[in-house]
Amino acid sequence: MSLEIFNRQRTKKINTRLLKQIVGELLVESKIEQAEPGVHLVAAPEMTRLNEKFLRHAGPTDVITFDYTDVVGADVRRLSKSKRGIRSINETPHVVSHKSIHADIFICVDEAVRQARKFGTNWQSEVVRYIVHGVLHLLGFDDATAGVRRTMKREENRLLRELSRRFPLSKL
Q: For the chain, where are the E strands, in sequence order?
């Protein structure tokens, strides 16, 4: 596993060593056999540029995931979903064993701070939540419709709870 953390923001000081441990554990928990993710911590101006250029959405967003996994791996992940989305929790894509994942996950720390205030949490938990969200997208989870969004959110919450039990997220 080759995991890189790139901190290109100055909003908050971040313990990248601890973050690397958290992401590594998340990948193990998600049953990913090989991974070459890059986690990029960025400020709102950079996230806005990425969001507008690649997703054609105005303004910043919390997380953007770029999946570079080969086409065969991507097809295998998507075979576990029905055309209408995931039908039951037993059919979620994470039950499929993944050979490898190659991706970049961009996290907007400014958005984490803003959302933490809004939801009464801490920005460190929000950063980890965004990473979990990005990894779930790599595993084939979708949040395009209400039904699959609920399934994804349940899994996101479960993984965040597991990580918060194992790591002091507030020390991030």
A: 4-7, 32-42, 63-67, 98-108
